Amino acid sequence: xxxxxxxxxxxxxxxxxxxxxxxxxxxxxxxxxxxxxxxxxxxxxxxxxxxxxxxxxxxxxxxxxxxxxxxxxxxxxxxxxxxxxxxxxxxxxxxxxxxxxxxxxxxxxxxxxxxxxxxxxxxxxxxxxxxxxxxxxxxxxxxxxxxxxxxxxxxxxxxxxxxxxxxxxxxxxxxxxxxxxxxxxxxxxxxxxxxxxxxxxxxxxxxxxxxxxxxxxxxxxxxxxxxxxxxxxxxxxxxxxxxxxxxxxxxxxxxxxxxxxxxxxxxxxxxxxxxxxxxxxxxxxxxxxxxxxxxxxxxxxxxxxxxxxxxxxxxxxxxxxxxxxxxx
Length: 328
Hints:
Largest sheet: 5 strands, parallel
Structural class: alpha/beta
CATH architecture of the largest domain: 3-Layer(aba) Sandwich
């Protein structure tokens, strides 16, 4: 398929995604950044880790998107006493048949909101992360495939750290995007106030099906990416590992303990294509990388004690990379 043909098909099909954004915007005020990143994750087949204070419409956003694509949605509240079986399911003994039958857990849905993932112990986190990676679950000795599409949006509450179990850095790497969500503006909050005090429920029209999403994913894979864009992605990732090889980045060597993994390279390419699709383009431009790059890199850089002592954050490092790495 040539670029003109890809571009024509993308312009034609991406209007479907505009309809999703339009339907979600009826219910969710503001939070355009979160909604668009949710769609990037959906189109690029990646999961999302979201950090923000309570009450920022995280559940509402993912639930509304699931309604627009006629998909199943489950919200799982993570707590310290949660067990892996509460997530993936277990075997139940049937007295009539004298057999054990599987009872599938809430993980068997298209959209999962894993609320406050850092509240649950390591075993539960591992069960979720394994199902995210493998797209399947094993109950006893039988393996079950998870529904397609399958998207996990996990949230972390940055406020309380007592009684929490922070996700290990190596496991955070399995999330395609890490989003930092802030409060709405005053005008947006006024609109929230006006909408939410009304008695009537705002109807959301389904505009796509799960099969349509799988079809769109195949089209997103076809989006054209030039060699110089691929080189730009590689430079960004390698600058996190070997900053001394890049102009004006020498001092980062003492600040970065571990750089981004090869997953960052793959996810930058996939998410950039999804972002180009949302922009109705059949080809990737550097602005696609810049738009989604921080969300992909911020949780993949492990800082040294020296960086922490100087109060330098991962965000500072990522901003520096995008400022200094030459744009094709």
